[in-house]
């Protein structure tokens, strides 16, 4: 993962997400998913703009099937917004930067 967007796995989920002192946005995605590739640059932009206030991570659904199952991911891209280790928001499908930002703000 590039820059401020971290790769999240079952092994680092507790440390990176559940115990995070700031809200976390997880992007559930896959290499073969066209809409996921459209959302990726938006996630990078938001990660840069909200650095220190919100943490961003990506979960590859092909490699992390356990996490995908745990959070009932049935379609990608899906963004989950966590605060204090709990899901506070969900966005299924590609969305604009302003829509994703609004979802993050609603979930805080």
TrEMBL record:
Keyword Cell division: no
Record-linked Gene3D superfamilies: Glutaredoxin
Alphabetized GO MF terms: protein-disulfide reductase activity
SS bond list: 33-36
Catalytic site positions: 33 (nucleophile), 36 (nucleophile)
Span of domain Thioredoxin: 1-108
Matching SUPFAM superfamilies: Thioredoxin-like
Site feature Contributes to redox potential value, where: 34-35
InterPro entries in the record: Thioredoxin, Thioredoxin-like_sf, Thioredoxin_CS, Thioredoxin_domain
Positions bearing the site annotation: Deprotonates C-terminal active site Cys: 27
Listed Pfam families: Thioredoxin (PF00085)
Stated family: Belongs to the thioredoxin family.
NCBIfam families: thioredoxin
Protein known as: Thioredoxin
Protein source organism: Methylacidimicrobium tartarophylax
